[in-house]
Amino acid sequence: MSGNIARPFIHQSVLNSAIKHKFIRERNLINVKQCGKAFNLSIKNLLNITEFIRGEKRYKCKECGKAFICQSKLTQHHRTHTGEKPYKCKECGKSFNHQSNLIRHHKLHTGEKPYKCKECGKAFIHQSSFNQHHRIHTGEKPYKCKECGKAFIHQSSFTQHHKIHTGEKPYECKECGKAFIHQSGLTQHHRIHTREKPYKCKECGKAFNHHLNLSKHHRIHTGEKPYKCKECGKTFNHQSSFTQHHRIHTGEKPYKCKECGKAFIHQSSFTQHHRIHTGEKPYECKECGKAFIHQSNFTQHLKIHTGEKPYQCKQCGKAFNQQSNLTQHYKIHTGEKPYNCKECGKAFNHHSSLIQHQRIHTGEKPYKCKECAKAFKQHSHLTRHHIIHTGEKPYKCKECGKAFIHQSSFIRHHRIHT
C-alpha cells in the first residue's frame, strides 16, 4: 500500500474502473464501502478522483491562466508554451507533445484501422474519428453555436467556428505575421515558407504539406466518393465538399462581408474575397515576383514556370495543371450541366460559371478598380485590367524574351516557336 501512496497520478485503468462502478452517479466515494466493491487506491488517488468528479481545476498554468483537473493535463498543456515534443516517431522523425498523439500517428505508418463503419464500410485509425464519422449517417450535430445557431458534428469544429465570432487568432506566423485561429492552421501555413511536404502519395509520388490533403488526393486513385447529396445524387470524396455543395440547394450563405455586404457559402471564399478590399496578397512567386490573394492561384501559377500538368483526361489525353480544370474539362465529354439559371434557363457545367452568368441579369459588378473606378463582373477581369495601370508584363517568353500582359497572349505567341 505504501507503494501506491508514493504514486503521484491516478492510473487510467483505476479511474476507468471507478467511473464504471458509478462513482459519478452516486457522487459519494463512501458508497464504495457500502457495496463491498474494492479499488487499489491511495489517499492521493482518492482525492484526485474526488476532484475529477466534482470538476475541480486546481492546477493552473502560469503562462496563460488556463486551469486543469489534474497535474498530467497541466504538464501536457505547458508543452504548448515551451514547444517541447518529447515523443518522436521512429519511422519519419515527426515529434509530438503527448504520447497518445504519437500512438495515433504511428497507425499512419502501420495502416491499422480497427474501427469500421457498418453503414459504408469506411475504416478509421481511432474510435473518436469513427464516432464523428458515424454522425454523417445519423445526421446528429450535438454542438450548436449560440451566436448563429449553426450546429456541428464534433466539438473541435464548433470550437474553431466560435472563433469566427470572437475574432480570436492567437497563433501568429513569425515569417509573415499572419495569424490563425488554431495551432494546426499555423503549422500547415508555415510549410508554405519551408516548402516542407512530408506526406507523399505512394501511387504517383505527389507530396503534400498536410495529411488531410494526401487523404483527399488518394481518392483520385481509388475513385472513392462516400458522401452523397440526397437532393441531386451528386457524390463527393470528402465531407467538406459535400457540406459546401449542400448550401447550393439550401441557399445558406453564413459568411457576410462587412465592407460590401456580399455573402458566401463557406469561410475560405469569404477570407479570399476580403483580400480584395484589403489588397493583401500573401503568396509571392520567387520566379517572377507576382503575388496572389490565395494559395491555390499561387500553386496554379507556379506550374506555368515548371510546365507541370499532372492531371490527364482519359478520353482525349489533354493534360491540366490542376484537378479542378480536369473535372471541368471532363464535362465537355459527358455533356453534364447541372447548374441552371432561374432567369433564362441557361445551364452550366460548374457553379462558378453560373454565378458569373447571373451578373448579366443583376448587373452586379463587385470588383472595382482603385485607379480609375471601372467596375468588373469577375475578379480575373479586374486583375487583367489593373495591369494597364501598372504596365506589368509577367509572362515572358524564354525563347525570344518578349513579355506579355496576360497569359493568353503569351500562349498564342509561344506557338510561333513550337
UniProtKB/TrEMBL annotation:
Q: Keywords assigned by UniProt?
A: DNA-binding, Metal-binding, Nucleus, Repeat, Transcription, Transcription regulation, Zinc, Zinc-finger
InterPro entries on file = C2H2-ZF_domain (IPR050752), Znf_C2H2_sf (IPR036236), Znf_C2H2_type (IPR013087)
For whether the record's keyword set contains Phosphoprotein, the answer is no
Where in or outside the cell it occurs: the entry states: Nucleus
One GO MF term, please?
zinc ion binding
Query: Record's Pfam families?
Result: zf-C2H2
Q: Which PROSITE patterns match?
A: ZINC_FINGER_C2H2_1, ZINC_FINGER_C2H2_2
- GO CC, one annotated term: nucleoplasm
Where this protein primarily resides, as one coarse class? nucleus
The protein's superkingdom reads: Eukaryota
Give start and end of each C2H2-type domain. 59-86, 87-114, 115-142, 143-170, 171-198, 199-226, 227-254, 255-282, 283-310, 311-338, 339-366, 367-394, 395-418
What the entry lists under PANTHER family is as follows: FINGER PUTATIVE TRANSCRIPTION FACTOR FAMILY-RELATED (PTHR24384), ZINC FINGER PROTEIN 519 (PTHR24384:SF235)
Family per record: Belongs to the krueppel C2H2-type zinc-finger protein family.
What's this protein's function?
May be involved in transcriptional regulation.
Supply the name of the protein.
(raccoon dog) hypothetical protein
Q: Which organism is it from?
A: Nyctereutes procyonoides
| Lineage start | Eukaryota, Metazoa, Chordata, Craniata, Vertebrata
